[in-house]
Amino acid sequence: MATNSQPEVIIYVVSDSAGDTGELVVRAAIAQFHPINADIRRAPFVHDEASLERFVLQAKEHSAIMLYTLVLPGLRDRMVEFARIHEVIAIDLLGSLITSLEDKTNRKSRQEPGLNHVLDEDYFRKVEAVEFAVKYDDMRDTTGILKADIVLVGVSRTSKTPLSMYLAHKQFKVANVPLMPELDPPDELFQIPKEKVVGLTIDINYLNGIRKERLKALGLPDSAAYATTARIERELKYAAQITDRIGCLVIDVSHRAVEETASLILEYIESN
Questions:
Q1: Which fold has domain 9-117?
Q2: What is the model's pTM?
Q3: What residues form the annotated binding site for ADP?
Q4: What residues are designated binding site?
Q5: Burial of 235 (0-12, 13-18, 19+ CB in 10 A)
Q6: DSSP category for residue 69
């Protein structure tokens, strides 16, 4: 996503479907250049040549790179032509692979956009899990703790919400509970198997930096109590008391990507 400063690179992700695949690939590539200020602009559900050329022209105007996942061969051909005419860097993510599969199997592809978003049972389970994560985010309704597959607990800014959403896309119903010294944890937290609960902890100095940046983003002074090391130390000590009482797994999320932490959680949940 774009930041307040001028992006170093702008990347258009063009697709005749939702564009999820292309954006994931772009983000994976960008991660190899961290830190980098990249602006990813998704252009989904492009089904006609006029729309296609419009995005190519926008990419040219911003000296952007284009990555496209176009299933329809006619659109792929036009993209190649438009990119050549307008001198835009355009990378075909699917075309060569589809062609190679056709040659290898001696079969024609179905040429239907969006087949990986079929409205099947898995899709509706995922939607249900996402809705669950939204409803039971940050202890808005503690009854969700009893219904959840996974319950995340931790102090503020330990990635509870992003993790909840990521795990929801893996079809797990996740509730998350913020731990603060001023609030007693909900009784429901101690009524479920400890194997369902995952505590999230973090390095004091690392969290201090995260919270200062959060305050700046909100236009507030980074000297507020929320970001002081004394306050953070108190919160983490309290959170450790709660997770010790529960006897649950605790994961240190310092310097860990959401995907990495989620992988550890899933490995633990699936082993119990």
A1: Rossmann fold (3.40.50)
A2: 0.63
A3: 154-161
A4: 154-161
A5: buried
A6: E
